[in-house]
């Protein structure tokens, strides 16, 4: 079944449909990851986006029960050069196409993904549609140009009610902006008692639970579209340790007077080199974001830049100079991706323990 991929600038790619059937419109982006397509497709940071994989074949090891990063993905569509109709892996439960059909996600294959990626790199991310060739082109293109991308993406993917992930150790509040399950896994490995709460949870609601620490998760969209979270961070920092990841990093920066900007085509992949400023150590990291912190806006008296991306020198890490709080732009949970930065979760544990001892010493 032929399908068309139409870009906002009028470029048309012809391909073959797979997965669910349906016309969709979203922001088209690309990922350079060579593996981990299941984790990427189920990552809520891709909410509302059409994801292009630059790796030439996708789907060869199927889909399994262990690699979900969310149960109900909200990605718009998948674009590939070739999708594997057969899957070969001992963990595989279904093919990629079967999975996309179950989740009602359209796909298009047979696309020159190199040419598509070069166009996105040159002109930036843009709106795109996947449509049936039988549809009148002018109508489909007019609809694409008239489409408005949603701004309430975090509200779409965040949990509506708090829920526990019981443990026996440190009491950690996880603010869900579109969290990846791997963040919960890493905290659970470190014996944390977790309470996952909605994006619009107030500072008072958090502090009433007397947490040892607060995790600000990843999520989709523009951080400036979540002003309630910025206010909440301002009101809890200094009272409880904070660790922010990806969107959580950007919100932490905004809460401390920084500015953020939309990148031309973002960072999406598993091989982004990041330098730790203090040690010079290089970590290869998993990344998925379209916005970044403006380095010039960082108040050096309150915030310390801890990490920089080597390729474009964007801000990849911040630490508060006066409060127990830090954040990183990349994904230390590494699902998918290299495990170079897993120690940041251990650093969060140490920060919570040190803060607890400090509070105990001051009150006794």
Helix/strand layout:
Layout: E1 2-7, E2 12-19, E3 24-31, H1 37-41, E4 49-53, E5 57-58, E6 77-79, E7 82-83, H2 96-102, E8 106-109, H3 113-123, E9 126-131, H4 137-146, H5 153-157, E10 163-165, E11 170-175, H6 181-189, E12 192-197, H7 203-207, E13 213-216, H8 227-236, E14 242-245, H9 247-255, E15 260-276, E16 282-293, E17 303-309, E18 315-320, E19 325-328, H10 343-363
Parallel strand pairs: 3-4, 4-6, 5-7, 6-8, 11-12, 11-13, 13-14, 14-19
Antiparallel strand pairs: 1-2, 1-9, 2-8, 3-9, 10-12, 15-16, 15-17, 17-18, 18-19
Helix pairs in contact: 8-9
Can you give me a brief rundown of this structure?
This protein is of the alpha/beta class and 364 residues long.
Summary keywords:
ten-stranded mixed sheet, 364 residues, seven-stranded mixed β-barrel, alpha/beta
Broad shape: globular
Q: Uncertain segments of ≥5 residues (pLDDT<50)?
A: none
Q: What share of residues are in beta strands? A: 25-35%
Whole-number average pLDDT? 96
Overall number of strands: 19
Radius of gyration: 21 Å
Going across the biggest sheet, name each strand in turn: 10-12-11-13-14-19-18-17-15-16
Report on the biggest sheet: 10 strands, mixed
Q: Which series of helices and strands comes N to C?
A: EEEHEEEEHEHEHHEEHEHEHEHEEEEEH
Q: How far from one another are the termini? A: 72 Å
Structural class: alpha/beta
User: Count of helices?
Assistant: 10
- Portion of residues within helices: 25-40%
């Amino acid at each position: 079944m032929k399908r068309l991929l139409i870009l906002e600038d009028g470029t048309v790619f012809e391909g073959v449909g797979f997965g669910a059937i349906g016309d969709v419109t979203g922001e088209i982006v690309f990922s350079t990851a060579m593996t981990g397509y299941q984790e990427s497709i189920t990552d809520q940071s891709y909410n509302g986006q059409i994801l292009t994989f630059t790796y030439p074949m996708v789907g060869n090891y199927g889909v399994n029960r262990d690699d979900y990063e969310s149960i109900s993905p909200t990605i718009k569509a998948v674009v590939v050069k070739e999708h594997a109709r057969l899957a070969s892996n001992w963990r595989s439960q279904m093919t990629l196409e079967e999975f996309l059909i179950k989740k009602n996600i359209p796909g298009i294959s047979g696309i020159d993904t190199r040419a598509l990626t070069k166009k996105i790199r040159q002109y930036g991310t843009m709106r795109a549609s996947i449509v049936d060739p039988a549809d009148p082109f002018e109508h489909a293109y007019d609809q694409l140009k008239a489409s408005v991308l949603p701004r309430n993406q975090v509200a779409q993917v965040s949990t509506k009610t708090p829920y526990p992930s019981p443990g026996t150790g440190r009491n950690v509040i996880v603010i869900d902006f579109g969290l990846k399950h791997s963040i919960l896994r890493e905290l659970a490995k470190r014996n944390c008692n977790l309470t996952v709460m909605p994006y619009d949870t107030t500072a008072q609601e958090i502090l009433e639970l007397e947490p040892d620490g607060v995790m600000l998760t990843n999520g989709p969209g523009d951080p400036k579209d979540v002003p309630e979270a910025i206010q909440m961070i301002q009101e809890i920092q200094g009272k409880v340790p904070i660790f922010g990841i990806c969107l959580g990093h950007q919100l932490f920066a905004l809460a401390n007077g920084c500015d953020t900007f939309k990148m031309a085509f973002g960072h999406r992949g598993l091989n982004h080199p990041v330098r730790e400023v203090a040690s010079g150590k290089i970590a290869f990291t998993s990344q998925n974001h379209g916005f970044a912190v403006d380095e010039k806006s960082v108040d050096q008296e309150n915030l310390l830049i801890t990490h920089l991306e080597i390729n474009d020198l964007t801000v990849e890490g911040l630490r508060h100079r006066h409060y127990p709080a830090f954040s990183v732009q990349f994904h230390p949970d590494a699902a998918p991706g290299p495990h170079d930065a897993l120690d940041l979760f251990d650093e969060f544990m140490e920060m919570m323990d040190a803060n607890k001892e400090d509070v105990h010493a001051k009150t006794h």
